[in-house]
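Bug: token stream looks shifted between consecutive jobs. Job 1:
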Amino acid sequence: ALLGCTTVPAPAPVEFETVECVTPTLNVRKPLLLIQNVHTTYYGNVENAPARDANFEAYLATNSREVKLSILFMSHRAWDINFNGEMIFEERESIVPQELQAAHLLRDITLSYWPENAIERQSKTLDIVDSKNTRKVLDRVTGEMLIDIRYESGASVTNPVGRIVLDNHKEQYKLIIDSR
């Protein structure tokens, strides 16, 4: 007979609130055609867990009808995301971590490349504050900084060629995007 045996539950993951998902207004910016090297650092949703890094290549194309993003991992297509102005469509391989969500990536693209007024018109909760080489995404009610975006090596909202560093403080990750 077994006496004194018990199971110990695994620690519950810490729940993080997410930043409102905004999407590109397709006809308010010039089309983009970019080749990108992306480095991600995901801090996770479990306390004291080590950060996870990933590097991949991406191809971003936008026009007045759609946004297309293809992500390659080790030279193999791993994730395709398409947005037609109304719906997000995706095809993903199992190698893409489940923590990465198409709506969140599309939101980060919108916050990095679209004009401040186009974002604020559709958002109920976000304020955008642009200054030289930076963009801050704030909670409209509390003023809390949710996302901090830095434009480096010639990049800006209107000229995406260069480096963009996006720190998502709310969801615990960082993206470094080098575009050419």
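Job 2, same session, no restart:
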Amino acid sequence: VYNADLKHEEEMGEFIKICRADGVGLKDKEGNILLPPAYTGGIYMPFEDRIIAREGSPVAFECMRSYLFDTDMNLINKEYNAFVYLELDDGSYVGYAGCEGEFADFPCYDDNGELCEKGYWFIDKNGNKLSEKFEYIYENITYEEKEDGTSERIYHHSFIVKKEGSEEEIIPEETYAVKD
């Protein structure tokens, strides 16, 4: 096994994440490579049966391309630059994803080789669209100032969406939250 550039390994559920100088990969506990260490944007498990692997930089949606796999390494969805999943207080989750179309550093293509449509959607754990298309979606994050002068990031679990030039706040528990 070539590992001259091995930086470190870490357990990730039933897998081991391989972190090398040129990217991140995944192997099983027996050492079999499941995803080669070529994903420069990281590998994450938002659910115990889903894996997100990213190419590029996780700085912004347009700087990466993401792949959604199941734990058998079947590619489920590759049509978004990024998938984001947040667990809510009641155990449900909200997911959203975005595609930057031709403006992305790493454009996304569907199974027919066509460039994916630019837009943002609320999604389920398989990347299936649950909403209409938005120009963008972002988390409504506020900060609370503490007595010591520092601030703490507070999530209110709401999202700001933009459609046809106007912004609107959406509460996911009332709209796009999913409970498995």
